[in-house]
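User: Hi! I have a protein structure encoded as tokens and I'd like to know what sequence might fold into it. I'm fairly new to this, so please keep things simple.
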């Protein structure tokens, strides 16, 4: 799917005890996103089955990716501002229980919400930036 099918809005400040949020709206071909979120057994991927990564680019924006953890297939990639991702990681990391929310809205207006604890940030060359990532304690990479 094309990156321009997605609009990313990052709310880094955790207001009213809400977690920082990445709100993603999809406006591409009908049903295409839903197909990528469907599992072979007929269910839908949940937060335990999705990995979230961000790859910095030389300019101010980078690439936010959601991946099926079980198959390694991309669900999608979208452009997102680097400074907003940095603010989200910083806000989430300052919480007692570091986490963030992904709210994904498809082309038919149906929303899915995922509570996430890990966001891996990579430099433009593909090296993990541990200090700029959100990695739960006890997780070995």
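Assistant: Happy to help. Inverse folding works backwards from shape to sequence: for each of the 141 positions I chose a residue that suits the local structure. Here it is:
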């Amino acid at each position: 799917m094309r990156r321009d099918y997605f609009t990313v809005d990052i709310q880094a400040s955790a207001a009213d005890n809400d977690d920082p949020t990445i709100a993603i709206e999809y406006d591409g071909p009908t049903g295409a996103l839903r197909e990528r979120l469907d599992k072979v057994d007929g269910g839908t991927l949940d937060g335990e089955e999705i990995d979230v990564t961000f790859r910095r680019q030389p300019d101010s924006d980078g690439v936010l990716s959601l991946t099926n953890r079980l198959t390694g297939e991309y669900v999608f990639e979208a452009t997102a501002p680097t400074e907003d991702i940095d603010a989200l990681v910083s806000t989430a990391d300052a919480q007692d229980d570091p986490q963030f929310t992904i709210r994904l809205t498809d082309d038919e207006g149906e929303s899915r919400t995922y509570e996430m604890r890990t966001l891996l940030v990579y430099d433009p060359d593909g090296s993990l930036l541990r200090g700029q990532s959100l990695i739960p304690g006890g997780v070995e990479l």
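A useful reference point when you look it over: The chain has a mean pLDDT of 91. Feel free to ask if any position seems puzzling.
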